[in-house]
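The record is passed on directly below:
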Amino acid sequence: MEQKISIALKEIARGANEIIGLEYIEKLVRKYYETNERFIVKAGFDPTAPDLHLGHTVLIQKLALLQQYGARVKFLIGDFTAMIGDPTGKNETRKPLNREQVLENAKTYEEQIYKILDQKHTEVCFNSTWLDALGAKGIIELCAKFSVARMLERDDFTKRYKENRPISIVEFLYPLLQGYDSVAMDADIELGGNDQKFNLLVGRFLQRAYGLNKEQSVITMPLLEGLDGVQKMSKSLGNYVGITEEPNAMFGKIMSVSDDLMWRYYTLLSAKTLEEIEDLKHGILNQTLHPKAVKEDLAGEIVARYYDNEQAIKAKEQFSKVFGANLLPEILLESDFDEGVGILDVLKQIGFCPSTSQARRDIQGGGVKINQEVVKNENYRFVKGNYVIQLGKKRFMKLNIN
């Protein structure tokens, strides 16, 4: 029993930035092993975009892992709070979504999460269920439990306050409403990104304030770096891998990451144990394994998770065929720009380069091609048409210039 619990806690902690209330998690896991009684784990997602990418799955895979150790997952779609807009990390007031946008995006979330989660032990919840019913009286009672001084402990609010930038009262409500979700859902554990720590702790505080005989444990997870290894994975930056992308595209994108970033992806995305990952590292160090083969295993594992083993094998064969013959691969991404856009801006906006200066260095080093021709002019501007831009040997994108 003790060994099982020790292994469980080690895997739960894997990749996490911080765990607050580890003793309570141990108590919950122990009780599950002894009585088969499941505990409630909550994670909230504001459906501000319609598709999930690997960055989102860092949290979802941790939820799936917790299901193995006794969690009943309450996957919270923040349809109510998304209409406010999470101000976390923002320097300006964020524009809210309307209900139609939120519900449309939420549909695809429900279709995609069961590629990862055990549906039998998952409940999809919408926080409008209890927040709509809270009413003016309930909102006032909620606000009375928290002070403005504590709210200004958040770095992003403090920065905007000192710079005399607007902070709406509605934005103050966001962490309170997210925290109230934990009260309404009777959560034992809440997961969130490391940028959400303040909001998660509000939930822990409000459970006490509302008289619940518990304080939810908090697990914060890192934001996954995108394919460029610099900025967080984001569709708007073009450095993402969508979980509904075609197998060949998914495989090829993962193969494009650096060898260093590969280990980050292994830790946060792979089902391999920490011991197995260490064995792979030693294999490369001892030259009994080649980094390319290890990266192919990772790419294959991820493709198989969202499709099947047969599709993963075919994607690997296609990748080997294309790059073994030094041919142009199937286009992995497309992006649209207006006529006259400069190449430096394009390289930065599609996520190939983290900065203009890096884009300039890549051009000067001969690493950038347009339609297989090396670009030497850093002031190059695109005219209307279709192009294939390439950085190095593995990164390609189709550009539609309108």
User: Anything to note?
Assistant: The first helix runs from residue 2 to 13. The chain has a mean pLDDT of 88.
